[in-house]
Amino acid sequence: MITYLAVLKKDINFKKLEALLKNKKIRLAAHYTTIGVVKLKSSIPVSETEFQEYFISIEEEKDNLTI
Questions:
Q1: Which of 15, 39, 59, 60 is the most exposed place for a label (fewest CB within 10 A)?
Q2: How much is the pTM?
Q3: Residues 35-66: pLDDT tens digits?
Q4: Which of 20-28's residues contact partners 24+ apart within 8 Å by CB, and which partners?
Q5: Rounded distance, CA 8 to CA 35, Å?
């Protein structure tokens, strides 16, 4: 499975997003409400264009995070 991090837009209908993800067989692995980010897991590639009304950006998770 591929893991993605997505930045949420403000004032979205989160219940609709959850239903859409479930319909597309994408698992919502985590929701970081403080920073407005969700972690998604999917066996198929997740396209940013499919979720334009919900996300500012979607990136495949990488192991090179440094602070």
A1: 15
A2: 0.85
A3: 999 999 999 999 888 899 999 999 998 876 55
A4: 20/51, 20/54, 24/50, 27/1
A5: 9
Could you tell me which of 55, 36, 50, 38 has the C-alpha nearest to residue 3? 38
Beta strands in the chain (DSSP E): 2-8, 27-32, 37-42, 55-60
User: How many beta carbons lie within 10 A of that of residue 64, not counting itself?
Assistant: 4
In this structure, which amino acid lies at residue 12?
A: I
* d(C-alpha 61, C-alpha 13), whole Å: 24
Tokens describing residue 43: 């066996």
3-state secondary structure of 23: helix
Classify residue 49 by its DSSP letter.
G
The token duo for 27 is: 């698992």
